[in-house]
Amino acid sequence: MAHEGTVTAVSSNEVYAFTKPNRESITLLAGLGVEGDVHAGVTVKHRSRVAQDPTQPNLRQVHLIHEELFAEVAGEGFTVTPGALGENITTRGIDLLGLSTGTLLRIGDEAVLEVTGLRNPCVQIDGYQDGLLKQMVYRDADGRLVRRAGIMTVVREGGTVRPGDVIKAEVPAGPHRPLERV
């Protein structure tokens, strides 16, 4: 598994929308998320979660997706570009989905994210492109649910993140803890 990669794009949006415009840089704020992004905060900001319990801790402060996924779904006829699925950081070369819960991602010179789990893809993905949801979540040959729409993290140390920044994963000690949906 690759434990090092590169940031290929960064995105944020100050309003609720499915996609997020690409930016030259984003600023991560410890304990909050992406400065100026609608999903930043100590407690949940995703509308469905706020409706359930607005006091839940925000384990979904920063969303990352691997750019390699875009090429995979292109082979099935879908066009997905950085920020299109609402992620804040698009990566290349690092196996995000294979990381352990609690992995620290050091990005650039300052920022540190802690991996909390998998993004749970929702029906809004089909609103973006009909049929895309089946590419993001499906059952494998053994009947296990596979989620491929990226990972969620919280900000442990703030800093500026730009395309081209190196990402280094520090896997926690102990047994591998597979990512669950958050």
Automatic annotation (TrEMBL):
Q: What is this protein called?
A: MOSC domain-containing protein
- InterPro entries in alphabetical order: MoCF_Sase_C, MOSC_domain, Pyrv_Knase-like_insert_dom_sf
PANTHER family per UniProt: METAL-SULFUR CLUSTER BIOSYNTHESIS PROTEINS YUAD-RELATED (PTHR36930), MOSC DOMAIN-CONTAINING PROTEIN (PTHR36930:SF1)
Name the coiled-coil region(s): none
Taking every annotated instance into account, which residue ranges of this chain make up the domain MOSC?
A: 20-170
Species this protein is from = Streptomyces indicus
Q: Provide the leader sequence positions.
A: none
Q: Which SUPFAM superfamilies match?
A: PK beta-barrel domain-like
Q: Name one GO molecular function term.
A: catalytic activity
Domain of life, per the record?
Answer: Bacteria
> Matching PROSITE patterns, A to Z?
MOSC
